[in-house]
Amino acid sequence: MPSDSRIETALRALGEPIERYRSAVVTTVEEVRGFLSSHARQEDTGDGTATARLGVFAAGRIDVERFTSVLADEAPEEPERLRKVEQAYEILRAISAGGDSSFHVKVKSGTRLRDAVAARWAELGRGFAAARLAGLATVGKLSANGAEGELEPLGFERWNPTERQLAPPLVIELEGADLHAGDLAEFLDGNVKMVLVVNGEMAPAPLVRLITPSTFVLQTAGATGLDRFAAAQGPAVAALVPASAAQFIHDPAGGTSPGARLELISLPAETPKSAVGGTSVRQQLDELEQLKTLAGEPRAEVAEAEAAAAPAAGPVASKVDKLAAWLLSQADLSNVG
Amino acid sequence: MATKTRAASKKKRRGKAAEKEGPEVIRVPETTVEIVSDSGEGAQKCGQIFGAVCAKMGNGAWTVEIIPAEIQPPARSKAGGSGNRIRFGTEEVTNWGDATNLVVAFNEQVLLGRIELGALAEDAIVLLENQWATHPDEDIRKEWEEGLKELSKHDYRIIEVPMEEECLKIVDDTRRGKNMFALGMLAWIYDRDQELIRGQIAHQFRKKGEDIYQRNVELMEAGYAWAQKNLDFRIEVPTVPSDVPKVVMNGNEAVGMGVIAAGMELCSMYPITPATSASHYLGDVFERFGGVVHQAEDEIAAVGVAIGASYSGKVACTITSGPGLSLKQEFLGLAVMLEVPLVVVDVQRGGPSTGLPTKAEQSDLLTACFGQHGDAPHVVMAAATIDECFHSMITARRIAEAFKTVVIVLTDANLATGVQPFVRPQVDARWQQAPIGLAPVPEDKPPYDWDPRTGLAQRRVPGQPGGMYTATGLAHNEWSKVAYDPDSHQRGCQMRSRKMAVLQSTLKPPEIRGDDSGDLLVVGWGSTRGAIEEAVDRARAEGLSVSSCHITFLSPLPPGLKQMFSRFDRVMTVEINYSDEPDDPYVTEENRRRAQLCRLLREATLVDVDCWSRVPGQPLRPGKILKAIKQRLEMGVQV
Fold first, then answer.
1. Least CB-CB distance to A139: which of B263, B439, B558?
2. N or C: which end of chain A has fewer CB within 10 A?
């Protein structure tokens, strides 16, 4: 399957969360626009805001001008505050106008997956920062100089639970050698959805490291399981992988035991024979063994596969692994205690 | 089964609907209908749906729930009647009127109970369940016969309806069916839109499932068909559909919506009749708007939680009724002393003590104004209509925050359960804005940095840079330090009191309905407005020189009252709380106990304000107010 069509497939699978995120942004844009227009009117009508704040019940009963004049501590919205809200509005508008490319990240070969994902979410997180600021302004709690007025990129680690539920989904395109699944673990919260589109050689089952009871994890060579991925409640990560990789679905809705949740579709025809990126053969075998264990397969097969994978040189195959093994053999650990 | 028609009058009555001629159509500008049953038979639900449909069709409407004093009163008892009274008309309806024109009664005992209360018009039409005539219990058959004898002494038109028999064709338990059958009869008689009725039934039973909905619709249609086949009259109350979008709700729902619209974040309360349904409503929806309903362990804790939330910068309220207000008084004094904004809603019921929990009264005015020990000046205002139950919440919050004090909003059981259509509020985001500035507070600025002219000080919230201070209910100085010296307490009291004078200076004099001067000015407050204004309008139509004004702010009172009163020969309040009549035994000019607003007005204006008040446990009727107006006018000049 060519890369472009797999990205289209991934974006289709993420259609619902993308729509939900866009809808939330558009709604916020409208609210902020209403706020700004109401404050623009205030300048035209003098005490418009004071009248509005007192409500309909006060009409004919309270002299608004007099009421306002005795409340010295209540000044109208300061220009600095309004300027901040206007900035927030522009950020939200730009985000709402962004196309599908906003949700597509291409990891540069040889760089960290984590850094690419964190940077994109921090950028999209500016929308959350803008919404927070507008919310404070709406309820009159925004100060002109306070830190709550920051409109900088807002990293995932600073998103609150509600924002994590609304997390913008991502399609992440990367080389198999750069797929270190552990990089994604910190982001699996709320309703986060990610689809990895993997090119080139890769370890057979890297995503097995992301399996936790409430995380939906999918490795598929075609479109199998993407419908369930799209419908999953809670954090979910899928990888569109070459046919040579393991294929499996871990669906939290399947049950309470790992075996009930994990559906093993296929294992690689060949056992790993060389390291991929920084992932050693040993690590790859461990991932496969973990996959089989979780799926409830007998350990004997894993042992056989391990033996077949390294008949002469043991588990050490690549230059890097050989060096590591030598260093270990040279270390005298007898005095460690 | 054939319809039996009993009428004591000599008017010609037609029996079964004449198939050729069709029913007689009686056209009226307004009418009043009651549905009354034993408790648990659903007459209230029937009335609520009927009232809502009338309002949605474009009629003005006002409904009043008929609630027995006991939770489960004995069946077939005069005092156990439960139901709904719906007054609706072509024009706006502002009160429950004088008498019922048509009643559907599920047994003769609850009907007799209503008659004893004077609820029915002399020529009322009665649709009466007749299963009791053949009931297996001989005592019940005897009661039925005696009841009918009693009814025959009146000029009612009584139509016996085999509700039990008809409903048994559809359901096994007619206690859960007659109300919809009755609704169907009313739908035919008043030509109500059946689609709207189905919609209301669907809304009413939205949590019960499709089967229940279908069964209720079937019962309603059976009632409609029965009336079509057997009744020889219909009543037409022309509707005036409006382009202005309206909403239909009761006063407690309106309070709940107002709490949300005002941007409140916490409603802390303890269940108490008749206020509880406001918290039920909020409990269903408040969280969707970021709010929390906290049910505390008692009334005192409820107000304490609200004060704590407000102290920490949240927008908080508590909702209660008379006995609850009594229990909260010490904490209300604390809120005044701390200068913490707080909105308190008191849905008044009959008192004192547990009094009349389900009945309407306006007896809490003085306790709302003066219930706290020591000097605790705060704001008291009253809602007069259902829509004011909504809108008053926004204004109350604003005043509470602007003046950092307690605002008590008085409604009552009449408003709480009454339903009235009103123009759908256009919610404004600015209602939810808080006046709290989170800008750092200079270190040299004390927490009670009273402006000596206004008594106002900037609100402090824990967490605000420079805003930390120790709050205390003990007498304190401007640094919130406990201070027993004479000057500090005097100054604190002075500053808290000053705020009331400042608020009063921003109020406008109330508007007069009618002429600016004349023989009599009728003054009211709260839910009596509709009945008073209707009575005054009738009096004016008869050529009497009467005007009225309705007071919303009760503490502080609005300015200009003395001047206003001076233009009338007599001034009289009309209220639903107790007062002695001037000619009662032992009652003299000196010892006469007057109605509560009357006392406030006399004190504030030094005008010899008179009063006419009753405590019937029901809303006042315009006809009775009109009678009192005429009686006072015969007494001549007083002021």
1. B263
2. C
Residue B534 confidence class, pLDDT cut points 50, 70, 90: very high
Residues of chain A positioned with their CB less than 8 A from the CB of B402: 67, 71, 74
- In angstroms, the Cα distances linking B503 to A1, A290, B454 are 75, 73, 9
Helix (H) or strand (E) holding A67: helix A64-70
Q: Which of B595, B588, B582 has the alpha carbon at shortest distance from B522?
A: B595
Q: Min CA distance, A320 vs chain B (Å)?
A: 55
Query: How far apart are alpha carbons A133 and A91 in whole angstroms?
Result: 11
- Here the ipTM equals 0.90
Q: Do A56 and B425 lie within an 8 Å CB cutoff?
A: yes
Residues B319 and B366 reside in one and the same domain: yes
Domain membership of residue B380 (yes or no) is yes
Pair (B228, B299) in one structural domain: no
Amino acid at B321: S
CB neighbours of residue B485 within 10 Å: 10
**Residue B353 within any structural domain of the chain:** yes
Flag whether residue B505 sits within 8 Å of chain A, measured between CB atoms: yes
Over residues B122-153, the pLDDT tens digits come to 999 999 999 999 999 999 999 999 999 999 99
Q: Which residues of B touch A141 (CB under 8 A)?
A: 434, 436, 438
Distance from CA of A90 to the nearest CA of B (A): 20
- Contact list, B510 vs chain A (CB under 8 Å): 61
Which pLDDT does position A72 carry in this prediction?
53
What is the residue range of B208's domain? 3-236
Which residues of chain B lie closer than 8 angstroms to A145, CB-CB?
439
Residues B386 and B530 in one domain: no
Task: Please name the residues in contact with B573: beta carbons below 8 A apart, sequence gap of 6 or more.
Answer: B522, B523, B524, B525, B595, B597, B598, B601, B609, B610, B611, B612, B613
Q: Do B392 and A57 touch (CB under 8 A)?
A: yes
Which of B312, B427, B430 is the best mutation test for A, with the most CBs of A within 10 A?
B430
The reply to whether residue A55 touches residue B394, judged by beta carbons under 8 angstroms, is yes
Nearest to B506 among A63, A73, A146 (CB): A63
Alpha carbon distance A37, A34 (integer Å) = 5
Contacts of A54 in chain B (CB under 8 A): 394-395, 398
For residues B179 and B327, membership in a common domain is answered with no
Looking at beta carbons, which residues of chain B come within 8 Å of A67? Answer: 402, 506
Q: Which pLDDT score is estimated for B2?
A: 38
User: Across residues A156-180, what is the average pLDDT?
Assistant: 93
Look at residue A27 in the predicted model and tell me its pLDDT.
81
- In this structure, what CATH number is given to the domain that contains residue B9? 3.40.920.10
pLDDT confidence of residue B638: 62
- DSSP-H helix ranges across B286-364: 299-311, 322-338
DSSP class of A37: H
Residue tagged 């046919």 (tokens): A243
Please report which confidence band the pLDDT of residue B257 belongs to, taking 50, 70 and 90 as the band edges: very high
Nearest beta carbon to residue A140 from set B428, B436, B502: B436
CB contact under 8 A, A57 and B439: no
Q: Provide the pLDDT for residue A51.
A: 87
pTM equals: 0.71
Model confidence at B460, pLDDT cuts 50, 70, 90, reads confident
Structure tokens that stand for B12 in this block: 């010609």
Q: Is B312 on the interface with A (CB under 8 A)?
A: no
User: Can you name the residues that pair with A196 across neighbouring β-strands?
Assistant: A172, A239
Q: Which one of A27, A32, A49, A57 would you mutate to disrupt binding with B, by most B Cβ within 10 Å of its Cβ?
A: A57
Of B390, B424, B458, which one is at a domain's C-terminal end?
Answer: B424
What's the distance, CA B178 to chain centroid?
28
Same domain, B407 and B518: no
